[in-house]
């Protein structure tokens, strides 16, 4: 965690500023357009989805060594890097941490995007597809740009899984909230 903070600690103030700017922009936009029927609560998932996408881009599309153009690696065979890491590394936690980090990276996106489209059908499928497309965008840019990052099919699969699990967590959260509200209504 300390390594993550050292590497990406500068992101926190940027995200705070972007969040404040987005809230102010939406406030001004709402007042100019005269949308009295829109609720602020409906803007929360949109803002958090955009913030999670911004965080994904900042983490995955920042150069490994700032100011130096490096060529990255590519892997298009599923679980090939995992297999190599398990065979040739003595520390099992490194490949597992890498896979889990790719899943956790897309959990907020899956949760907040599902919250954003909660009134539509096929939330789980649409969120998983959106997470997959976002991950493909990231992997293609890591391939094309000299960031020193590796383009890996395992990353795409784990990122898509993270969006899927985030969507599942939102659906579970929604179900728990509905049960709570129904219990509260029955007791009243």
From TrEMBL:
Residues 74-173 form the VanZ-like domain. InterPro entries: Teicoplanin_resist-assoc (IPR053150), VanZ-like (IPR006976). The chain crosses the membrane at residues 12-29, 41-61, 99-116, 123-144, 156-174. It comes from the Bacteria. Keywords: Membrane, Transmembrane, Transmembrane helix. This is VanZ family protein. It comes from Rossellomorea vietnamensis. The lineage of its organism: Bacteria, Bacillati, Bacillota, Bacilli, Bacillales.
